[in-house]
Amino acid sequence: MALHLTGNNVHIINKEFVPIKVLLLSDIHWDNPKCDRDLLKKHLDQALAENIDILINGDLFCCMMGKYDPRSNKSDIRPEHNKNNYLDAVVTTAVEWFKPYAHLIKVVGIGNHEDSILQKHETNISERFVYGLNLLTGSDVKLGGYGGWIVYRFQRGKVFHAFRIKYMHGFGGGGISTKGVPQFNRMASMVEGANLIWMGHVHEDYEVTTSIETLNHFQKVELRDVLMVRTSTYKEEYNEGKGGWHVQKGLQPKVLGGRWLELHPERIVKDRKERVKINAFTYKTL
């Protein structure tokens, strides 16, 4: 069903009043030689087979091999991108590679890697990717931001029931012990009304559920669960512990993949009063 934009960066996706499944991805680093494209394709093909929406929360690209990037290293560039028009080559090949999944991709957010390219090279490669994909396939992929909202609205009769996702690519480091969980506390302190807060960035994989107290329209106390979801990466940097920046820093091997989000709208009748609850949970892609 239709996807449209309200406000500056709020994307609304309307659905029927039936359970749905969504593929949450971030930190793909698609152009990096260390990206496990076979695993990524497996998950995208699963989404394709089941007609599942795909959301991407930043760092679709790595793009660290540019002229003004001090981290650039020729060993970390794919042959098809080792050209004078490096950024053009990355975007063009990405559009072709993701073409079979274009009709499923709903929103592509911006990560720190894409934002770095914008600052150093004055071009928004996420915007160029979305434009190229839509132009080539006739799809309607939307460009998100570093953070924003994606709202799934389930229609029952003439009424819509919303499940609100606050996405933010991420900030800070993960930490070997905390894995970035405290960052959700900061997000929760400044975000209100979200059913799910989703971040990537630190290449960790987990779901944490917190419960908050609120007053409903009848001034009765209600407890509401909020999911805190972190999606990991497809970039395998550990390399059997043989060496490299990741190993030198004492960083752990990272879980590869994304997470499936399931949303199950439910009609509840109690004391002759009806309400709708949207049950939600996530689990790791395999």
CATH fold call: Purple Acid Phosphatase, chain A, domain 2
Question: What is the second-level CATH architecture?
Answer: 4-Layer Sandwich
Q: Tell me roughly what share of residues is in helical segments.
A: 10-25%
The largest sheet is: 7 strands, mixed
The shape is globular
Overall mean pLDDT stands at 91
**Backbone CA Rg:** 20 Å
CATH class group: Alpha Beta
What is the H/E string?
EEEHEHEHHEEEHEEEHEE
The number of distinct structural domains comes to: 1
Percent strand equals 25-35%
Residue ranges: pLDDT <50 for 5 or more in a row? Answer: none
Tell me the total number of β-strands. Answer: 13
Which strand order does the major sheet show? 1-2-7-8-9-11-10
Count helical runs: 6
Rounded to the nearest angstrom, the distance between the terminal CA atoms is 28 Å
Helix/strand/pairing category: alpha/beta
